[in-house]
Amino acid sequence: MPKPRETAAAPRTAGYAIEEELRAGGAVTIAGVDEVGRGAWAGPVVVCAAVTHLTPPPVVAGRGGRPVALTDSKLLSPAYRAAFAGLLPGWLAGHAIGASAPEEIDEVGMTEALRRATRRALAALPVRPDVVLLDGAHDYLGRPWRVRCEVKADQRSVSVAAASVLAKVHRDALMTALGADRPAYGFADNAGYPSPAHQAALAATGPTPHHRLSWSYLDDLPRWRHLRRHRDPLAGTGQLTLL
């Protein structure tokens, strides 16, 4: 694997201050949770729940052997994310992935889809957490879970940073696979998010079965606007076709 490229400013290093505060309040098992794919036009929303041992997290080697610390996946290059994703499963006490497909997102809306994906991830953990630590200010999970919301938890909490990396790497690999026979949409590069190539492909050939049909991007595509919130039986090409 080629050496990851360094950025001008080192990412902020995640720590255990939030987890230690929760443990002081009686929590034993803390699951850090983060999502990826919320703002994409295509593909699922993916959630990872990660439980650590509260031991020093792994680091990866950068240029010249300089250690690169675990942090929010958005602050790490793809090479660093891949390196951490190879180390984290063997270091964590447990982790699990949950997802909500485009069809479900269209049916129930993003907030409920995110809630369902998170519950699926938590249900798949080997232990039930005492506290779920969410990145952000909004508790989209709710009862019966005890939830702690922290803004920028993916930069401040090792548990959430680990979840951030694993969710991102999992979803990126999935989107690359989904786009293998549809290269014009650029899923390998844009992961289903808005991009010029993605928009051009949508305008030319319309949404695929992997697209969210309740998203407002369809309003900007007159030829395909009628598909908003409506799914046709798939044509032989796997495209959603013009009525």
Automatic annotation (TrEMBL):
Broad class of enzyme this protein falls into: hydrolase
Binding site for a divalent metal cation: 34-35, 135
Entry's Gene Ontology cellular component terms: cytoplasm; ribonuclease H2 complex
Cell compartments where the protein resides: Cytoplasm
PROSITE patterns with a match to the protein in the record: RNASE_H_2
GO BP annotations, alphabetical order: DNA replication, removal of RNA primer; mismatch repair
GO MF term list: manganese ion binding; RNA binding; RNA-DNA hybrid ribonuclease activity
Keyword Nuclease tagged: yes
Main location: cytoplasm
Family: Belongs to the RNase HII family.
HAMAP family: RNase_HII_B (MF_00052_B)
Name of the protein in question: Ribonuclease HII
Species: Sphaerisporangium rufum
